[in-house]
Amino acid sequence: SGSGHPDIDEVLVSSSEIAAKIAELAARVDADYAGREILLVGVLKGAVMVMADLSRALHVPLTMEFMAVSSYGSSTSSSGVVRILKDLDRSIEGRDVLVVEDIIDSGLTLSWLLKNLRSRGPASLEVLALFRKPEAITVDVDVRYVGFDIPSAFVVGYGLDYSEYYRTLPFVGTLTPAAIERGAPS
Ligand code: PRP
Ligand code: MN
Ligand code: MG
């Protein structure tokens, strides 16, 4: 596989591809928000890597907030039931909010989150997601910035987890059947 990690079957997006894409997305965001201030809302925990890299690549004034939401179940697919584990610390009323996500899979988390945030009266509300799976298209979520459209395989790395593991891998890839079976890193 060439990843150097025994649990990784195939690398789908390399760390250098991710870095280049983040730089490209940051340039677009900088241009679109010129003269304004952004409130980045990172969706814990998956978005931590994108937040860390994107925020440092941006030049417009920004502040960061985090929200922790999770779909029920810790397995390889999402259920659509979303719970707030940690809400925002402050009001987003009148703010230019950019929600930062690692991945849109079914789109259910984001669809729910956008409805929730829209009700709080932001001046604008946009989404940046580094990865998106084809199924996400079936849900009515308007995502302004998408990094990569990837196949529907279960993937880990760069924030994406399997049973909370593998988030720190610098690339995104698929797990070997043995690693999935084991449910923990080797
Ligand atoms: C993952 C991912 C997205 C969401 C996408 O989060 O980080 O937030 O699922 O799935 P969906 O489009 O089908 O709703 P998860 O709920 O696993 O929590 P985590 O970020 O803490 O891993
Ligand atoms: Mn998440
Ligand atoms: Mg997860």
Automatic annotation (TrEMBL):
Entry's localization field: Cytoplasm
Highest taxon listed in the record's lineage: Bacteria
The Phosphoribosyltransferase domain, residue ranges: 16-162
Domain notes: The N-terminal region contains the highly conserved SGGXDS motif, predicted to be a P-loop motif involved in ATP binding.
UniProt record similarity statement: Belongs to the purine/pyrimidine phosphoribosyltransferase family. Belongs to the tRNA(Ile)-lysidine synthase family.
Known role: Ligates lysine onto the cytidine present at position 34 of the AUA codon-specific tRNA(Ile) that contains the anticodon CAU, in an ATP-dependent manner. Cytidine is converted to lysidine, thus changing the amino acid specificity of the tRNA from methionine to isoleucine.
Name this polypeptide is given: tRNA(Ile)-lysidine synthase
Gene that encodes the chain: hpt
Residues of the full protein shown: 421 to 606 of 606
